[in-house]
Amino acid sequence: MDIPVIRNILEANDRISEQIRNMLLQMKILSLNLMSSPGSGKTTLLERTLTDLKEEFTMAVIEGDVMTSNDARRVAATGAQAIQINTDGGCHLDSSMVLQACNQLNLDTTDILFVENVGNLVCPAEFEVGEDYKITILSVAEGDDKPEKYPLMFAESEVMILNKIDLLPYVDFSLERATRFAKQLNNNIKVFPLSARTGEGMDPWYDWLRKEVIAKKNK
Amino acid sequence: MDIPVIRNILEANDRISEQIRNMLLQMKILSLNLMSSPGSGKTTLLERTLTDLKEEFTMAVIEGDVMTSNDARRVAATGAQAIQINTDGGCHLDSSMVLQACNQLNLDTTDILFVENVGNLVCPAEFEVGEDYKITILSVAEGDDKPEKYPLMFAESEVMILNKIDLLPYVDFSLERATRFAKQLNNNIKVFPLSARTGEGMDPWYDWLRKEVIAKKNK
Q1: pLDDT at A1 exceeding the cut of 60
Q2: Percent of chain A beyond pLDDT 70?
Q3: Which residues on B lie below 8 Å from A66 (Cβ)?
Q4: Is B168 exposed, middle or buried (0-12, 13-18, 19+ CB in 10 A)?
Q5: Cα angle vertex B52, ends B46, B56, to 5°?
Q6: Contacts (Cβ under 8 Å, ≥6 apart) of A171
Q7: Is the pLDDT of residue A6 over 80?
Q8: Where is average pLDDT lowest: A5-14, A106-115, B102-111, B149-158?
Q9: Which of A1, A91, B110, B176 is deepest in the core (most CB within 10 A)?
Q10: Nearest CA to CA, how far is A60 from chain B (Å)?
Q11: DSSP A176
Q12: Contacts with A141 from chain B: Cβ below 8 Å
């Protein structure tokens, strides 16, 4: 009984996701869906990225949260255009929410649209939101076994960011082991170990963004 | 269209949950539903608790995971009876899964049944699994704003465990602020700051378990 309903929801979601993707392709905007557990540092990563690259790119952010607009306020403080979606208990963003948010942003000169999903390592992976790429952030405080235990998100992501490497001396986490688990699921995944808090290791992430912005402009 | 379907699912879940609750009441087994983000330390908390209290209580564990039976193996290594539920992508345990698991365990002499839910700070809070109490674990590496941002789980929990206090010197986390946010949602919530890794602060948690086991025997 439930399965057809769920399939219809996913199909409806995919249709709107394609609509967003086509719109952003025409506008040459790189669109990234940032996903992770709660507290892995998505918003801190965005704050630093938006600050460090503000002279190079025009960036906009759609913030997804169960409750509060704290995160949109944090990223707007960098000067970037930001809008908050509250899911009111919902465990993921869907494409209709993101389409509504896109329609309320002025994306005319935007180079990169970041979508920060609800903190959840399971459900958001099932719902496309018009993104070019999914990015999964894993904090080293969460344990290096997470790609093996929550495989879908890592299997679908173009990039895995291993955040909070400043905590490596104090936790049991092997960058090699986390990378190996992720590559077993997805051999092409790019892995960027960094600390959004201290700024260590941000450059390979920024270089990847630069390359992908150019690739999108040439599409 | 979707809302009635979802309501039916929740009602069916609640009926089976009541069935489990009645069964465990007759057997005088204290039942605890452990919930948290991925990587907050649920399994490590269980490993230490099962080891430290093994002479006092008979304990059994139902492990919920999206994939792998790593966690059931870890807790079984303490000598406790353990069974693994794989949700195969599902983002929470439901009561029918837990009922099936109960039926495969020998609970005759059990004092405490721990249910370790799927790592997810959103969805598991909506699904009762026959528990006496919900316990939310929050690692200090996740940030003290989590009760405010993911309120339902904290609002419904009898206990909030603030885990990984050994990391407090290295992260921006205020025990006072996390406690204040949680008490705004749920004034009676008990808060136990501890480190399941180092063992610091475990005693108040053990005292609470002792008190609740006795209360359940006298029901």
Answers
A1: no
A2: 97
A3: 122, 149-152
A4: middle
A5: 110
A6: A140, A141, B141, B167
A7: no
A8: A5-14
A9: A91
A10: 22
A11: H
A12: 39, 139, 141-142, 164, 167, 171
For chain A, what is the mean pLDDT?
Answer: 96
| Of the candidates B28, B27, B18, the residue with the CA atom closest to the CA atom of residue B213 | B28
Other CB atoms within a 10 A radius of the CB of residue B144 amount to: 22
> Which range of residues forms the domain containing residue B149?
2-217
Contact: B89, A143; criterion CB under 8 Å: no
Residues of B in contact with A144 (CB under 8 A): none
pLDDT digits (tens, 9 = 90+) for B114-133: 999 999 999 999 999 999 99
Give CA separation, A147 vs B31, B68, B163, in Å: 30, 11, 22
Identify the CATH number of the domain in which residue B172 sits: 3.40.50.300
Each residue of A101-148: pLDDT tens digit? 999 999 999 999 999 999 999 999 999 999 999 999 999 999 999 999
Q: State mean pLDDT over A166-182.
A: 98
Closest-CA distance of chain A to residue B206, Å:
24
Q: Say if the Cβ atoms of A66 and B151 lie within 8 Å.
A: yes
Which residues are registered as beta bridge partners of A63?
Answer: A84, A116
Residues in A whose CB is inside 8 Å of some CB of B read 2, 5, 9, 37-40, 65-68, 70, 89-91, 118-123, 126, 139, 141-143, 145-146, 148-152, 164, 166-167, 170-171
Percentage of residues of chain B with pLDDT beyond 90: 95
Residues whose CB falls within 8 Å of the CB of residue A62, separated by 6 or more in sequence, listed in order: A82, A83, A85, A93, A98, A101, A102, A105, A113, A114, A115, A116
Nearest-Cα distance to chain B for A205, in Å, is 22
Spatial contact of A117 and A31, defined as CB atoms under 8 Å apart: no
Taking the CA of residue A141 and the nearest CA in chain B, the distance in Å comes to 6
* Structural domain count of chain B: 1
d(CA A26, CA A67) in angstroms, rounded, equals 33
The answer to whether the Cβ–Cβ distance between A89 and B139 falls below 8 Å is no
Cβ atoms of A77 and A71 within 8 Å: the answer is no
